[in-house]
């Protein structure tokens, strides 16, 4: 047993209570700001546009994002229009949105 008797608790002064209240308010404000930012911010993979393609594809854990920009996106779209598997069919509309569909298939 580390103590022979229980030490007595010291009561907080009004200054200590204000300090704890201020720290609690700051922590609450930071949490609210973080939640608001997470809810409003769309992130970098929000949608296909301007040469970037983002596709939500089925995976073993439910869903997965397939994202590519630039040369990788052009190759992804070229392959999507050359094949007819499920992922290619899901990728084609996003290639059209990003402006990366072959000229013959744009409409």
Detail the topology: elements first, then pairings:
Layout: H1 14-40, E1 52-59, E2 62-69, H2 70-82, H3 86-98
Antiparallel strand pairs: 1-2
Helix pairs in contact: 2-3
Describe this structure in words.
This protein has 107 residues and is α+β, with helices and mostly antiparallel strands. The protein folds into 2 domains: 14-43; 52-105, no CATH class. The chain is built from 3 helices and 2 strands, in the order H-E-E-H-H. The protein has helices at 14-40, 70-82, 86-98, and strands at residues 52-59, 62-69. A hairpin with a 2-residue loop joins strand 1 and strand 2. Helix 2 (70-82) crosses helix 3 (86-98).
* Number of helical segments with 4 or more residues: 3
**Average pLDDT taken over every residue:** 84
What is the count of distinct domains? Answer: 2
What shape does the CA trace take? elongated
The major sheet is characterized as: 2 strands, antiparallel
The Cα radius of gyration reads 27 Å
Beta strand %: 5-15%
The number of distinct β-strands equals 2
Q: In whole angstroms, how far apart are the ends?
A: 81 Å
Strand order of the largest sheet: 1-2
Give helix and strand order, one letter per element, not per position: HEEHH
Overall structural class, as computed from helix and strand content, comes to alpha+beta
Low-pLDDT ranges: none
**Helix share bin:** 40-55%
